[in-house]
Each structure stands twice: as structure tokens, then as C-alpha cells.
Write a structure and sequence with these properties.
mainly beta, 21-stranded mixed β-sheet, 4 helices, 21 strands, elongated
């Protein structure tokens, strides 16, 4: 009963298996440089039209089947084009060569190798400021972002062709370093600010949607969806705190993360090798949900794991198993309450519910002699208190 319900609830979260993409040996470039002469701009354009190692990958993971922002198009396009035009008060670059007569001066791209080999547009607002800032990066528009040594270095594959940008983000030493180097990320806004924040995020994985007001703090979201099988739908108002969401979905899958994982090391290593469905208003305390779903599956987490003292979700030991939906609830009918002599862990409690046809969910209360409660009947709106983990099946 548990495994079946949880599996289908999570079917929309787990990414499809990797498949080979059709690739080409040369970059498909749009015209973006004026003039027919042999000056540096014309030379840069000619260089861009040569086959390069970045024009194709022999194989790449298929993005999540429900990705709605073109993750597949991102991988196929791979930001091969230079900008055709840039917004006002910004400077365009084609592989490190300024396009046209505009230049940054002291207003952008300041530092050793700042904007070296960069393609995209940079606002004259102090963006790409610091040694190696935006070096070898490909970003449609950098707006009040990438301020700090190594910030946005080799940051690539942001949704360049559709006019996406990095805005008010990636400010701090090493912030967004190697972000989406061989993966894909949508628009980034008011996020990834702090030393090494979002460094190596989507190195070879996919963030299907946007990152908004998230991942702000020391090493926040570092290594998120690092491997090519990692996937997250989108991150919104989440992962704000030191090392918050670090290694989240490193080698696993996570649905949309919304108003969750805000705290010191909150959601660190969540779904490291496993899978978690949508996370909503949950895990918002220091170290909440650390290592949750390591090599296991959780259908979803909603409005729970927000207790400082008891840190309820830290108790969860999946042991390669499958959990249902973790929510605040009370069932109308109490079936049985087990003592520690018969039920030693929350996993044992789940197993007891799994083999009882009348059981619809459990409550786990760690600090009592009878920690496991099994419930049947309809779910009421009355929440479990802070020290409980409540799971429906």
C-alpha cells in the first residue's frame, strides 16, 4: 500500500533515464557582429564559426520530462551565440571582445581577467567585478551581479537565447563559480549571494526552472544537482543560510523547493542519492532535514520539520525505503500506539502501517515510551505538534 501510493505520487519528480542527444560538430551561430573587415571583432566572429569541443557532447542526460523552461533546448543550444544586441547601459562581449564602440571602463569587468573570453551583456553597474569575475562565462545579461573574485567564473548555459539573465545575484567571492558549466539553469534573481554560494550548482545536472530569492549564504546551494542525473524543478524563497541545501539533489531528484530549507545546513544532502517530491514551507530550522532521503524516496514534505528543539525530520531513517507524504495532520481514528519494545524506529513504524490495511498514516513522537502511533480514517486539519513527524501513505 505504501510503496504503491508513494511511487505514483513521486512519478512526476524522478527524472527520466539519460538518453543520447543529437549533436553537431560545429556551432550554430547567429549573426551578431557587424562589419566585413579583418579587425578584432571580425576575427572573433570567424573564430566562433569554427568547430570546438564545446559544440557538442557525445551524450547528455535527458532533462526532467516535466521541465517547463526548455532544459533540453538549453543543452542543445549550449549558448553558442554571441549577443545580437544588449540592453541600454550595458556592454556586449563576443568571447572577450567588446562588440561595437561601447566599453566598460571602470564601470564593469574590472579585475585580472575579468570578462576574459566572456560572451554576453554586462550592465555598467559594477557587475563582473573582481579577479577572474565572469571569466570564460556565457550569460545573456549580468545585471548588478557577479561581484567578487571568481564570481560567475565559467558560469555557462543560462537561458541565453531567450533573454534570461542573472540579476542581483552571485555576489561574493566564488559565488556561482562554474555554475551550470555543463548543465542548465533558468533565470537567477536575488539569489546565490555569499562566499561560494551556488558554486558548481548544476555542474552537470539541471535546475528546470528559476532560482529566486534563494541560496543566499556561505556555501548555500553549493554542489546542488552537481551530477548529470541530478534534477530540481525550481528553487523559490528557499535555501537561505550557511551551507543551506549544500549538495541537495547531488545525485538524486527533488521537486519544486518553495519557502523551505532556510537555516544553517538546512536540507544539506537532501536526496543525495534518493528522491524527494515537492518541498513546501518545510525544513526551516538549523540542520533541519539534513541527509533526509539519502538513498530513499519521500513523496513530498509540506509544512513540517520546522522545530528547533526536536528537529523531527533528522530522525527519519529511510534505510533505502520509501516514505509517503510528510505533513501536519491528525487522523480521525486511532488504531494503535506502539512501545519501543516492539517498534524501535520510525522506519519500523512505517512498516507496521504498511502491512495494516486500515492504517492511513503514522505519527512519530521520539521523546516518549510509546513513540509510534498508527491512524486510520480521514485526515483532519489539526496539525501534529513540533516534536512529531506525521506521514500519510
Amino acid at each position: 500500500m505504501l510503496i504503491g501510493n508513494s511511487f505514483f505520487a513521486l512519478a512526476a519528480v524522478v527524472p527520466a533515464s539519460a538518453t543520447a542527444l543529437e549533436t553537431t560538430s560545429a556551432l550554430d551561430l547567429a549573426p551578431g557582429v557587424d562589419g566585413d573587415g579583418a579587425g578584432p571583432v571580425a576575427v572573433a566572429a570567424a573564430v566562433l564559426r569554427q568547430p570546438t569541443a564545446y559544440g557538442a557532447r557525445e551524450s547528455a542526460p535527458s532533462p526532467h520530462k516535466n521541465a517547463d523552461l526548455g532544459a533540453l533546448a538549453l543543452k542543445q543550444r549550449q549558448l553558442s551565440r554571441c549577443p545580437e544586441s544588449c540592453p541600454p547601459d550595458s556592454v556586449g562581449f563576443c568571447y572577450g571582445v567588446p562588440i561595437g564602440s561601447e566599453s566598460c571602463g571602470v564601470d564593469c569587468c574590472v579585475g585580472v581577467d575579468a570578462c576574459g573570453d566572456f560572451s554576453g551583456c554586462v550592465k555598467r553597474d559594477g557587475s563582473c567585478f573582481g579577479d577572474h569575475a565572469c571569466f570564460y562565462a556565457k550569460i545573456f545579461l549580468v545585471d548588478n551581479s557577479c561581484k567578487g573574485d571568481r564570481s560567475c567564473r565559467k558560469c555557462r548555459y543560462v537561458d541565453y537565447g531567450d533573454g534570461q539573465s542573472i540579476t542581483d545575484s552571485c555576489n561574493g567571492q566564488g559565488a556561482c563559480d562554474y555554475l551550470a558549466y555543463e548543465g542548465s539553469v533558468g533565470k537567477i534573481t536575488q539569489s546565490c549571494t555569499g562566499i561560494d554560494a551556488c558554486a558548481y550548482l548544476a555542474w552537470d545536472g539541471d535546475v528546470g526552472g528559476t532560482i529566486t530569492q534563494s541560496c543566499n549564504g556561505y556555501e548555500a546551494c553549493k554542489y546542488v544537482v552537481y551530477e548529470d542525473v541530478g534534477y530540481i524543478d525550481a528553487i523559490t524563497d528557499s535555501c537561505n543560510g550557511e551551507r543551506a541545501c549544500k549538495s541537495l539533489s547531488y545525485y538524486g531528484a527533488v521537486g519544486t523547493v518553495t519557502q523551505s530549507c532556510n537555516g544553517l545546513e538546512a536540507c544539506k544532502d537532501v536526496a543525495f542519492y534518493g528522491a524527494v517530491g515537492p518541498m513546501t514551507k518545510s525544513c526551516n530550522r538549523d540542520k533541519a532535514c539534513t541527509e533526509l532521503a539519502k538513498e530513499g524516496i519521500i513523496a513530498s514534505i509540506t509544512k513540517t520539520c520546522n522545530n528547533d528543539r526536536h528537529k523531527p525530520c533528522v530522525l527519519v531513517d529511510l534505510s533505502h525505503g520509501t516514505f509517503g507524504h510528510m505533513v501536519n495532520f491528525v487522523h480521525a481514528e486511532s488504531l494503535e500506539r506502539h512501545t519501543r519494545d516492539s517498534i524501535e524506529s520510525i522506519s519500523d513504524c512505517m512498516v507496521a502501517c504498511q502491512y495494516d490495511e486500515e492504517c492511513k498514516g503514522i505519527k512519530w513522537k521520539e521523546h516518549t515510551c510509546r513513540p509510534c502511533w498508527r491512524f486510520g480514517g480521514a485526515i483532519s486539519d489539526y496539525p501534529c505538534n513540533g516534536r512529531n513527524v506525521c506521514i500519510t501513505v
